[in-house]
Amino acid sequence: MSKSNKPGISAPGTAAFLYGVLKGNPVLVLMIGLCPVLAVSTSIFNAVGMSIAVAFVLIGSNVIISLVRKRTPGEIRIPVFIIIISTFVTIVDYVIRAYSPELYRQLGVFIPLIVVNCIVIGRGEAFAYKNTVKLSFLDGIGTSIGFFIVLFVIGLLRQLFGKGELLGKVIFSKPALIMILPPGGFITIGVLMGILTYYNLKKSKV
Amino acid sequence: MIDNTMNPFLIFISACLINNILLIKFLGLCSFFGLSSSIKNSVGMSLAVIFVTIMATVVSWIIFHLVLVPLNLVFLRTATFILTIATLVQIEEMFIKKYLPPLYKAMGIYLPLITTNCAILAVAFLNIDYNLNLLNSIAHGFGVGVGYTLAIILFAGLRERLMTAPIPKALQGYPVAFFLASLMSLAFLGFKGLFGL
Questions:
Q1: Contact between A25 and A150 (Cβ < 8 Å)
Q2: Which domain holds residue B119?
């Protein structure tokens, strides 16, 4: 990672960054934030749009939670997190509505629902509330990238098999429509998880 | 699509079967996979979901149409709804603990989990997106709750059966649960067209 070579970002920074991408991948490993992953992954366009929206909320709320962590009493931290997160979600909601009505129509209710996405509040509670602003920022970026990779791969597979086209080029003339319907989402993520478990089992045997 | 021209019964059927919140709309999936390992857990969670969905529907509808719209504060809806639902769940928990101990025993530990169940918040948002009146909103909320119950209890029953099935090691646990959910979702797609919906 090129980030680790920059001065001032030491080993804990790299660890915070990498955790969300690999070992603590929010979707495939921790099984949280599933709803948007399945619902909006019918095309690459939706997948990228949703990832950017989640990344903005996650990084923003991680930084702000980390900034106010010393002034926030433990008993009321969850309501405070919710207010911070919902502020960012409202910003994203209105920005998307203003600049990309098409994306807004596709993502629909899943944009305001980022506020209850377990990934965002989970990282706030587990990481940002206990760590410095810099580390929380890196953790936010790492987790967002982990989320993006999974969403992108699922979006790519579903678009390829369900619509039969990629980057405007027709690949399959008779696509399997089922892949962009709800059952296709479940199947795709099941297969991905199966492959991941298979490799982990194989690696632990060697 | 659900709108105000439909009667409450059709809205109920649509929310329960045709647009099933878990299998077709992909909402509330964390609890769908997390709490469906036994029928007992899923019954408790379903009760809590039905109860809270209806309450949250009524309260969020009133707040949106009688407070936020007249005061021109619609942009605050995300923050308002989530805080209202969180508060509502807390009050309900205290109330049920005091006055309905048997019910509390059945669904007590699931109530706090409801706050972050996106199905509940989604109903509040969808009622506004569909522009439903209060009665239709309640029918919609109730349909979502019943649909949730139907899907999660069937799913838990199937998963209990799978415990003894010979499944390849790499697919045990979540991967096979996803395949199962896919087949159930396929079955629910079959409801499309019922009553011309």
A1: yes
A2: 11-196
Q: Could B122 and A31 be called an inter-chain contact, meaning their C-beta atoms sit closer than 8 Å?
A: no
Q: Check if the interface score ipTM surpasses 0.85.
A: no
Residue B6 lies in a domain: no
- The boundaries of the domain holding residue A47 are 24-205
Q: Which residue of A has its CA nearest to B179?
A: A187
Position B188 in a domain: yes
With CA atoms as reference, report the closest residue to A81 among A129, A9, A24.
A129
Return the structure tokens found at B57: 């529907």
> With contact defined as beta carbons under 8 Å apart, do B22 and B28 qualify?
yes
Is B2 a domain residue? no
What secondary structure does DSSP assign to B164-181, as a single string? TS---GGGTTHHHHHHHH
Residue A150 domain-assigned? yes
CB-nearest to B171 from A38, A109, A194 is: A194
- Copy the structure tokens of residue B84: 């209202």
Q: How many domains does chain B have?
A: 1
Contact across the interface for A186 and B174, Cβ inside 8 Å: no
Q: At what angle do helices B39-63 and B118-129 cross, to 10 degrees?
A: 40
Residues of A with CB under 8 A from a CB of B: 31-32, 34-35, 38-39, 79, 82-83, 86-87, 89-90, 93-94, 108-109, 112-113, 115-118, 121, 178, 181-187, 189-191, 193-195, 197-198, 201
Answer yes or no: is B5 within a domain: no
Q: Which residue has the tokens 């159930």?
A: B184
- Is A43 within the bounds of a domain? yes
CB A60 within 8 A of CB A90: no
A–B interface: beta-carbon pairs under 8 A:
117
| Cβ-Cβ contacts under 8 Å, A186 against chain B | 178-179, 181-182, 185
Measured CA to CA, the distance from residue A33 to residue A122 in angstroms comes to: 10
- Residuewise pLDDT in 10s, chain A (206 residues): 344 444 444 577 787 777 777 777 777 777 777 788 888 888 888 889 999 999 999 999 999 999 998 888 877 888 888 889 999 999 999 999 899 888 888 888 888 888 888 788 888 888 888 888 888 998 899 889 988 988 898 888 888 888 877 777 777 777 777 888 888 888 888 888 888 888 888 888 77
